[in-house]
Each structure stands twice: as structure tokens, then as C-alpha cells.
Design brief:
With 184 residues, the chain is mainly alpha-helical. The protein has a domain at 6-94. It is 77% helix and 0% strand. The protein is built from five helices and no strands. The protein has helices spanning 13-25, 31-35, 41-53, 59-164, 180-183. Helix 3 packs antiparallel against helix 4 (59-164). It is rod-shaped and about 155 Å long.
């Protein structure tokens, strides 16, 4: 076991020294650990089972293999932990990225809604003003007709009076000016 290997899973020098001593004392080479570092835990467990069930292998050798398997189990667990931490970090980064994107999209949607609301209000105001003007059109038309009738009557009356006064007559026609804004 190499204590300097962060994936070994052991952090106490005394523990590492004891395990290495047990492995070497019982006749298993330190290379056994290195040879099997890259196999799966399932493969290691099956190999240990085969060793433990083989009557030709001495008890000391079986003990050394058990200690080696223990160290490999810790190594596999530590390696898996590191891989999981990397995956978690990657997923957390993706979540943060998605939150930022969602926030940006939410801001864009809010801006579009506000713009749409302003345009809607502007259109509503324009429509109301147009309706107000249109409602005033019949009233203005009737007023103009009345003025024309009054003007025609005044003209007839002045003409009649003028004929009475032999050619001299005064004409008075009231003048009104209307615009759509003066109606309101």
C-alpha cells in the first residue's frame, strides 16, 4: 500500500505499515496489490473466494490474500468515492448553469410581458380615444345641420326684411368651429 496514493483510502501510517507487513510476512509479494489495482471489485472477490476454498494454499497465504483484498476493497471504495464526488461536482455545476439560464429566460419573459402590457395599454387608450371621437361625430353632424338651418332661416329672414327696406339688409350668421377634441 502506498500511503502517498490519495486513492489508497488509508490515512494512518501505522495502519498502512501493519497491512504491508502482514502482506509481506505471509509470502504475498507487494506487487500483488499493484497487479490487481485495475480489476473490478467483483473480480477481486471471486479470486479471494477461489484462494480461500483452495486447500493447497497455506493459512498464512490465505491471510495475506485477505489483507490484500481488504486494502484493495478500501482502494476501490476510495476510487469510487472520488469518481462520485467528481460526478456530483459536475452535476452541481450543470444545475447552477441551468439556474442561471432559467433566471435569464425568466428575465427575458418578464421584459416581454411588460412590453406587451404597455403596448396593450397604448392600444386600449388609442381605441378609447377613437371611440370617443366617433361618438361625437353624430352630435357634431347634428349641430352643423342645426347651424345650417339657423343660417338658412336667418338668411331668408334678412332677405325678407331687406326687401322691405329696399335693398339694404344685414346678414348675421353664427359661426362655430368644432374639432374632435372640443367635443370632450
Amino acid at each position: 500500500i502506498n500511503l502517498n496514493d490519495p486513492a489508497c483510502g488509508f490515512h494512518q501510517k501505522e495502519v498502512v505499515d501493519f497491512l504491508n507487513e502482514q502482506i509481506i510476512q505471509n509470502g504475498v509479494s507487494p506487487y500483488f496489490y499493484v497487479m490487481h489495482m485495475f480489476k473490478s471489485w467483483g473480480d477481486m472477490e471471486m479470486k479471494l473466494r477461489d484462494i480461500l476454498n483452495n486447500p493447497a494454499i497455506s493459512g498464512g497465504m490465505k491471510e495475506a490474500c485477505a489483507w490484500t483484498s481488504l486494502t484493495l476493497a478500501v482502494w476501490f471504495a476510495e476510487k469510487q468515492k472520488q469518481e462520485d464526488e467528481e460526478k456530483i461536482k459536475k452535476l452541481q455545476d450543470q444545475v447552477e448553469e441551468q439556474k442561471l439560464l432559467a433566471g435569464a429566460l425568466l428575465g427575458a419573459v418578464s421584459t416581454l410581458r411588460e412590453k406587451q402590457e404597455k403596448e396593450k395599454e397604448k392600444a386600449r387608450s388609442h381605441r378609447q380615444q377613437s371611440l370617443k371621437v366617433l361618438r361625437g361625430v353624430p352630435e357634431e353632424r347634428n349641430l352643423l345641420r342645426s347651424e345650417r338651418r339657423v343660417g338658412t332661416q336667418v338668411l331668408k329672414q334678412a332677405k325678407t326684411e331687406g326687401e322691405k327696406q329696399k335693398g339694404t339688409f344685414l346678414l348675421f350668421i353664427p359661426s362655430y368651429t368644432f374639432s374632435p377634441r372640443s367635443i370632450s
